[in-house]
Structures are given as C-alpha cells and as structure tokens.
Amino acid sequence: MQTYGILAHPVEHSQSPTIHNAGFQALGIDAEYVKFDIKANELKAFMRKIRDEKITGLSVSMPHKINIIQHLDKITPAAQEMQAVNCVYWENEKLCGTNTDYYGAIRALVEKTDLNNKKIVIFGAGGAAHAIAYGLKEKKVTMTILDRTMQKSQTLACQYKTEYGIASAHPVDKYDIIINTTPLGMYPDTDSTILKAKDLKPNQIVYDIVYNPLNTKLIQEARKAGCKVITGERMFLYQGVKQFEIWTDEIAPLEAMENALMQELT
C-alpha cells in the first residue's frame, strides 16, 4: 500500500484526507492518506523519514510551505517564483516540490466567470495572495493588492507589477471580482469580515478562500448585497485534485472527492 499525507502543524482539522481517500477509493487505488502533525523543529528529521520510507507524496500546509524547500532536490518554476511548496512528489528518484494553490484558485474563478477584462482586487498579501496573484499573472489579468499595511501590499504588488493600497482606505465599487485571502471570518472568529453588504454591488463576484465555516460572514454579506459568490472549498478541492493527478497520473474522480468534502463541511 502506498502512503500519502498532509504535513502541517496543527493538522487535526485538515480535510485533505477526506478528499484524497475518497479519490483512492473511487479509483480502486491501494493507498492511504494520513495526517503528519510535525512541528517546525521536527521537519528535518521528518523529511529524512520520507526518503527512508519512500512515502509516496505529501500535501504541505502551514508552517512548512517555505522551509520544506531546503529539504527537496528540485522545485518547479511556479514554486520557485512563489517560494512556497504545497505538494511533494517523486520524479526519477528525486524528491520534488510544486505549488497547486494557484491552480485551485484560478480553476474556482473560471468556473464562475470569464476573467477577460475583469478588474480584480485581492485582500491580503500572504502566501495565499501570492499564489492567486501568480495564477492571475499567468492568465494575464491585472489586479490590485490590498493589505492592512502598505509595505506588505507594495512588496507583493511590485513582484507582479500591479497596483496596491491599504485595505481600510480603498473602496471596492470599481472592481468586478473581490478576493479575500485573509483569515478574517475563519473559525473561531466567525463574526469578522473585510467588507459589509453596503460596500458591495449586486453585479460583483465575491470570492472568500476561507472554508471553515463554509458560509463566512463575508459570503453572507455578499449574498445580502446580491453578489455572486465563490466559497472557499472550491480552491481547496481543486488544489487537491491537481495534487492527486500529479501523484497518480490518473484523472481525479472529482465528483467522489467533492461529495466527500461537502458531507464533512455541511
């Protein structure tokens, strides 16, 4: 039996095993996907274990997405540009890393709307914002980066040669798509939101990558304003689908993976 897993700390609430084990079961693959709760100071020893035991593949989450790079033989250009790895796999006896977050984010967007000529604003300038900005650049879409501090938004915006500003001082009425990559609204802080219904217009698309809870305060406010919404499980599902396909060379059983996830989240 092959072994895959999610590398994170803490890892208790991860839904990655839900989607990947559903995928293995649907395709009859003899594999299991488990949780590896590894602290930052345990990463080096754990990566030796990966090599010694030939663990087949890893999803990587906080706090390891950056530090894991030094323990890999090779990373893809996308992971190099983002300086973050969320997927580890074997290729010709080499331990390799890539990043599927940007793929998941953009696939969730394009299933809802055509990105051509859309004005997009991203709230936040951390790792998730980095991945989405990379994906939008690949699609040749312009964007604005907003953060609580000018320095963080400027740093990310300069890398992608786009506009930036401070979130609290920047109205969003001119944008077609609003993306939240901040943790505001995530459990247990479920009453927080970057925007209220009064800040939004009915023709806008509001995309919140937070998926715990699924119906965040921002999503509630967006629906109240008559906006179209994209909930956070879409990015999570699609980044996992891409990882599954990298590991197995099979077309991921999307319906089975999605159904399993939604049973856990609703």
Jot down its keywords:
266 residues, alpha/beta, Rossmann fold, 2 domains, 6-stranded mixed beta sheet, 9 helices, 12 strands, 36% helix, 20% strand
Structure description:
- It contains 9 helices and 12 strands.
- It is an alpha/beta fold and 266 residues long.
- Helix 4 packs across helix 5.
- It has a 6-stranded mixed β-sheet with strand order 2-1-3-5-6-4. A 6-stranded parallel β-sheet has the order 9-8-7-10-11-12, sandwiched between helices.
- Helix 5 links the parallel strand 7 and strand 8.
Order of helices and strands: EHEHEEHEEHEHEHEEEHEHH
CATH A-level architecture of the largest domain: 3-Layer(aba) Sandwich
Query: Helical residue percent?
Result: 25-40%
Counted up, domains total 2
Radius of gyration: 18 Å
- How much strand? 15-25%
The major sheet is characterized as:
6 strands, mixed
Work out the helix count. Answer: 9
* Unreliable sequence segments: none
- The gross shape turns out to be globular
Distance between the termini: 31 Å
CATH topology of the largest domain: Rossmann fold
What strand line-up does the widest sheet have? 2-1-3-5-6-4
* Structural class determined from secondary elements: alpha/beta
Please identify the top-level CATH class of the largest domain: Alpha Beta
